């Protein structure tokens, strides 16, 4: 790779990403300050993973991603193996067996990394079936391909991450040219099936393949005060998150001044509910700024995907965009009561090493596609 | 074509991205811009707690500033923010530690107190107030086993004079749910509130205003180190009473001594009460009721022993276990007996054209009109003065006949009898002046009930007979039944007319204070004070001044005239003169006051009243009543008192009047000997 090619790098994408990362570190400073004796403990760890992630991204962008096509089968096999291993050796945290600890290293969440691996594998899988995704039977292998890892994740059980995989599958198939009516029909059918099942469960007590805490999360999504404890049980998080964001108003209370956060009314405020910290301390201005930054980031990524010289690159970037979009919508939607509560982190902002590394690998891949894409101006 | 296809898909994708982010932005705007106020309030409710700070209760003094009720600093044991996990263990351990001192405070009792306050656990849950120092030491040493248990110093009501004027002062106790619900928001679940006496009457003056500590708590209701605002509590106002501590003590002691003496002869003589009042102002100088009430007894939970002492147990009234909770001076009514005779006399003088000096009545042992009520002796010819001195039943029945019932009722009511005196104490009972209307109402009810019963019995008697009878027999039976019914109805008419109408004997009974007359002691003292002061019926009162916490006068209670009685000054003067004869040689109370100096002559009237209580002997058991005032020339103080089952007025509560007057006028110092043993010890 030469210097001239480096000049092709999408400065907007990199610039917006840098702003989001700084935004994330800034809010982490406040969100995690009162949690440990060292007020910067989480900030330092997050910054460390960010640094590692940046190095990873740079390494990846130097690597020619198209070479990965040769290893598709191996990548897929590794993915499935990791998901099986985590089920066997995983550590259970809050009802989900999603963590694995290797040697002295900090525990990791394989399901985060496998998102990227699956996107890479699936992009090749779809590329080979280009133009063969129009009939009812043709996409079937695709669903089998993605269905296996989804089932393994559901066994952890991690409903949120399984949903991410489904969204990635549908978006990538759409971008690969699958019949939109077929996809739309499938989505609507699936949603209808889930809705019917839920209805039967709540109305007639039909068995549901979910843990009690997951069912409860769905129930409190309808009304957080109906958790059997007057809003002090499973509805607590939603209620406190809404209060935090609402209390922020236009300008917010300022960093370190959000009482919902600093007095711990808002749980998980450095991880899943970090957006509520932004809402309370930085107000509508800060929260909508982050939304705009995300919009710009996804938009620039989309531009990059269009400039790819081959469908493989386009599909990888589209899959990553789908992953990020779902993470953003689900996480923020949960904080403001639009979506049920799941443990889906906010990209680049929520605390978490696995998530940060995964997202930075994704950034490396996108920039790799970017640098090997068509020139914009000459 | 294929490329366009991809472009179209990318545009759709872009639209989906912006669409979803726009949805988030819109919802965010709704939450943060439109409903921000609502959520800000909720955030504040999350973290702001108001903890009330107890004010110091106002003190109570006698008229010379001697302290009757104060506050002392005590150790109060509370639980603060008991954690969920270790709560049971903690409560059990605490209950065990308290066991030797407070066996009634079990783990269940503590749990109940915590539960009652479950939404305000950031405020200490008071477990026991005023714990002894040994327990304080023991708990402090065991501190590491009792997390959340705190011992704080707080002011608590104390009564330095012990039981002195206990009924008048009343007591305070934990507020109950009803009181809390009915209150004006000035109380919380841990509050104490006046339950009787002046503590209840002047609760709003005494209680003060709660202060508040507005503080911030975190999600676990633990206070942060930021105490936002503290509003200091305002102590309650102090009360200066009209009571004279010395006089009160002398009166209580005298009452107690005489009750003990009388019990040798009459075991039922266990209850007495007396009131001394300033006749010019209505100020109550002393008010006693025996058996005594110790306000301090109500500090904690009432033990079963104390409950039995204060409240009559079982059904019906047992004179041997009368219960000490009642203030007999205002809460119980008594037949006045002969102390009513001045009323009859005044009615005769006013309306009967009777001359007190020249109109004589001849008493030969019983009155000459039915029901021929017996007299206390054979008195011969008597005028108003000698009749009062001898308490002659014949004379006053004759006076009643001449005056007529209306005149007597009017005078009695004019002097406040049968009405609440309006004294500043709660739960005052109302007496009764019997009137024709009252009699009709009461007896019509009784007689109807009686005859309804008889009518039903008649029906019940004939019904089975009629059913079994043959037609001819039935006819015969029906005729007999109608006959019997007619006789019953005729008898009903006769009884009804007789019982519901005022009969001459009703007047005679009333004239000598028997029959249905029922008055409180405070009514009697107010009546006699009105005779003494020349006809001004004053409202009796115990409060003299309301003082601010720094002893500035907030309010001065002025004497309050209820009305001027319509009896002439001359009649009043003659009555005072007649009542003086009671204490002069030959009078029924002469033996009590014969040692008094000439310038302090006492006017009095003795009373011996049938108790009218179920189970008492009509001709053998009497309440002793006594009313008096002095000095007769320039009256200053009036007295009324009762000793239940005291048999006579003069030899029971009359002695109390004597001691009190001797103390008041400085004839003999009864007070110093009472406090002497204390100074020695």
Could you please describe the fold and organization of this structure?
In chain A, 65% of the residues lie in helices and 2% in strands. Chain A has helices at residues 3-6, 11-31, 41-62, 72-89, 110-127, 140-154, 159-175, 180-204, 212-222, 236-248, 259-262, 274-306, 311-335, 353-371, and strands spanning 91-93, 96-99. In chain A, a hairpin with a 2-residue loop joins β1 (91-93) and β2 (96-99). The longest helix of chain A has 33 residues, at 274-306. With 681 residues, chain B is an alpha+beta fold. Chain B has three domains: 50-241, Penicillin-binding protein 2a (Domain 2), CATH 3.90.1310; 337-433 and 517-672, Beta-lactamase (3-Layer(aba) Sandwich); 436-508. Helices cover 42% and strands 18% of the residues of chain B. In chain B, a hairpin with a 5-residue loop joins β16 and β17. The model of chain B has no long low-confidence stretch (mean pLDDT 89). Classes of the chains: A mainly alpha (378), B alpha+beta (681).
How would you briefly describe this protein structure?
The complex is a heterodimer of chains A (378) and B (681). By secondary structure, chain A is mostly helical.
Write the layout of secondary structure elements.
The complex is a heterodimer of chains A (378) and B (681).
Chain A: H1 3-6, H2 11-31, H3 41-62, H4 72-89, E1 91-93, E2 96-99, H5 110-127, H6 140-154, H7 159-175, H8 180-204, H9 212-222, H10 236-248, H11 259-262, H12 274-306, H13 311-335, H14 353-371
Helix pairs in contact in A: 2-3, 2-12, 3-14, 4-5, 4-6, 5-6, 5-7, 5-13, 5-14, 6-7, 7-13, 10-12, 12-13, 13-14
Chain B: H1 2-34, H2 36-47, E1 48-53, E2 60-61, E3 67-79, H3 87-98, H4 107-116, E4 125-128, H5 133-141, E5 149-158, H6 166-169, E6 172-174, H7 177-182, E7 192-194, H8 197-201, H9 203-206, E8 211-217, E9 223-231, E10 238-241, H10 245-265, E11 272-278, E12 284-290, H11 304-310, H12 341-351, E13 361-363, E14 380-382, H13 384-390, H14 393-403, H15 405-414, H16 436-468, H17 471-500, H18 504-511, H19 521-533, E15 536-538, E16 543-547, E17 553-556, E18 561-564, H20 569-583, H21 590-593, E19 603-610, E20 622-630, E21 637-643, H22 653-664, H23 671-680
Parallel strand pairs in B: 2-10
Antiparallel strand pairs in B: 1-8, 2-3, 3-4, 3-5, 6-7, 8-9, 10-16, 11-12, 11-21, 13-14, 15-18, 16-17, 19-20, 20-21
Helix pairs in contact in B: 10-22, 12-14, 12-15, 12-20, 13-20, 14-18, 16-17
């Amino acid at each position: 790779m030469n210097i001239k090619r480096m000049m092709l790098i999408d400065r907007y994408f990199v610039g917006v990403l840098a702003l989001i990362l700084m935004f994330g570190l800034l809010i982490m400073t406040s969100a995690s300050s009162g949690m440990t004796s060292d007020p910067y403990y989480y900030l330092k760890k997050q910054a460390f993973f960010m640094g590692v992630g940046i190095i990873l991204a740079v390494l990846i962008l130097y690597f020619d991603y198209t070479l990965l096509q040769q290893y598709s089968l191996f990548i897929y096999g590794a993915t499935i193996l990791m998901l099986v291993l985590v089920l066997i050796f995983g550590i259970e945290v809050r009802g989900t067996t999603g963590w694995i600890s290797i040697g002295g290293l900090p525990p990791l969440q394989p399901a985060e990394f496998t998102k990227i691996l699956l996107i890479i594998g699936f992009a090749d899988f779809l590329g080979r079936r280009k133009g063969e995704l129009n009939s009812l039977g043709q996409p079937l292998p695709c669903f089998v391909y993605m269905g296996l890892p989804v089932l393994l994740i559901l066994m952890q059980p991690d409903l949120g991450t399984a949903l991410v995989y489904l969204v990635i599958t549908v978006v990538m198939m759409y971008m690969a040219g699958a019949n939109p009516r077929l996809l739309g029909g499938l989505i609507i059918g699936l949603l209808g099936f889930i809705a019917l099942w839920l209805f039967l469960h709540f109305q007639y007590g039909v068995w549901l393949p979910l843990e009690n805490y997951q069912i409860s999360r769905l129930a409190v999504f309808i009304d957080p005060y109906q958790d059997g404890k007057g809003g002090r049980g499973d509805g607590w998080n939603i209620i406190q998150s809404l209060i935090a964001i609402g209390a922020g108003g236009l300008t917010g209370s300022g960093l370190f001044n959000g009482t919902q956060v600093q007095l711990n009314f808002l749980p998980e405020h450095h991880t899943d509910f970090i957006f509520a910290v932004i809402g309370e301390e930085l107000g509508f201005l800060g929260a909508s700024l982050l939304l705009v930054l995300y919009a710009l980031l996804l938009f620039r990524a989309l531009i990059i995907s269009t400039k790819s010289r081959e469908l493989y690159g386009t599909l990888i970037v589209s899959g990553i965009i789908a992953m990020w979009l779902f993470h953003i919508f689900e996480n923020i939607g949960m904080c403001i009561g639009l979506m049920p509560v799941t443990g889906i982190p906010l990209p680049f902002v929520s605390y978490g090493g696995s998530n940060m590394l995964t997202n930075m690998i994704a950034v490396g891949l996108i920039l790799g596609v970017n640098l090997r894409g068509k020139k914009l101006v000459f | 074509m294929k490329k366009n296809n991809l472009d179209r898909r990318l545009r759709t994708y872009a639209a989906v991205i912006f669409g979803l982010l726009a949805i988030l932005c819109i919802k965010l705007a709704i939450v943060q811009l439109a409903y921000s106020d609502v959520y800000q309030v909720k955030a504040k409710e999350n973290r702001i707690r108001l903890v009330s700070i107890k004010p110091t209760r106002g003190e109570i003094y006698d008229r010379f500033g001697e302290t009757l009720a104060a506050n002392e600093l005590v150790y109060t044991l509370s639980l603060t923010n008991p954690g969920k996990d270790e709560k049971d263990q903690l409560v059990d351990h605490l209950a065990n530690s308290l066991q030797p001192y407070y066996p009634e405070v079990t783990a269940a009792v503590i749990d109940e107190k915590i539960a009652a306050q479950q939404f305000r656990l950031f405020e200490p849950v008071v477990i026991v107030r005023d714990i002894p120092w040994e327990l304080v030491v023991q708990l402090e040493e065991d501190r590491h086993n009792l997390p959340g248990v705190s011992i704080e110093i707080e002011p608590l009501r104390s009564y330095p004079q012990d039981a002195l004027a206990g009924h008048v002062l009343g007591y305070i106790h934990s507020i109950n749910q009803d009181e809390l619900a009915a209150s004006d928001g000035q109380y919380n679940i841990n509050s104490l509130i006046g339950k009787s006496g002046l503590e209840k009457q002047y609760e709003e003056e005494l209680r003060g205003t709660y202060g508040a500590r507005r503080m911030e708590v975190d999600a676990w209701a633990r206070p942060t180190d930021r105490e936002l605002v503290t509003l200091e509590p305002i102590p309650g106002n102090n009360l200066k009473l009209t009571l004279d501590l010395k006089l009160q003590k002398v009166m209580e002691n005298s009452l107690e001594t005489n009750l003990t003496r009388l019990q040798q002869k009459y075991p039922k003589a266990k209850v007495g009460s007396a009131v001394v009042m300033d006749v010019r102002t209505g100020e109550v100088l002393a008010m006693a009721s025996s058996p005594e009430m110790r306000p301090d007894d109500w500090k904690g939970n009432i033990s079963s022993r104390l409950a039995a002492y204060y409240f009559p147990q079982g059904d019906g009234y047992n004179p041997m276990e009368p219960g000490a909770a009642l203030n007999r001076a205002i809460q119980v009514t008594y037949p006045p007996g002969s102390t009513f005779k001045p009323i009859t006399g005044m009615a005769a003088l006013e309306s009967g054209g009777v001359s007190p000096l020249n109109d004589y009545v001849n008493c030969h042992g019983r009155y000459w009109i039915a029901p021929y009520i017996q007299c206390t002796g054979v008195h011969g010819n008597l005028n108003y003065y000698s009749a009062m001195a001898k308490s002659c039943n014949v004379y006053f029945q004759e006076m009643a006949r001449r005056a007529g019932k209306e005149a007597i009722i009017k005078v009695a009511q004019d002097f406040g009898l049968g009405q609440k005196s309006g004294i500043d104490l709660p739960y005052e009972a109302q007496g009764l002046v019997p009137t024709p209307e009252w009699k009709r109402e009461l007896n019509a009810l009784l007689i109807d009930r009686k005859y309804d019963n008889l009518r039903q019995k008649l029906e019940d008697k004939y019904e089975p007979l009629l059913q079994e009878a043959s037609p001819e027999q039935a006819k015969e039976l029906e005729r007999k039944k109608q006959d019997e019914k007619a006789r019953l109805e005729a008898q009903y008419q006769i009884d009804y007319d007789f019982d519901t109408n005022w009969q001459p004997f009703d007047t005679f009974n009333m004239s000598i204070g028997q029959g249905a007359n029922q008055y409180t002691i405070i009514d009697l003292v107010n009546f006699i004070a009105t005779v003494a002061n020349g006809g001004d019926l004053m409202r009796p009162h115990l409060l003299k001044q309301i003082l601010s916490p720094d002893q500035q006068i907030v309010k001065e209670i002025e004497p309050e005239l209820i009305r001027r009685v319509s009896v002439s000054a001359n009649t009043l003067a003659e009555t005072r003169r007649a009542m003086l004869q009671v204490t002069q040689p030959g009078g029924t109370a002469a033996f009590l006051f014969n040692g008094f100096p000439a310038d302090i002559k006492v006017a009095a009237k003795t009373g011996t009243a049938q108790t009218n209580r179920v189970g008492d002997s009509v001709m053998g058991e009497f309440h002793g009543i006594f009313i008096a005032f002095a000095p007769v020339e320039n009256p200053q103080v009036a007295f009324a008192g009762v000793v239940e089952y005291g048999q006579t007025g003069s030899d029971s509560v009359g002695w109390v009047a004597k001691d009190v007057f001797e103390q008041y006028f400085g004839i003999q110092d009864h007070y110093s000997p009472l406090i002497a043993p204390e100074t020695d010890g």
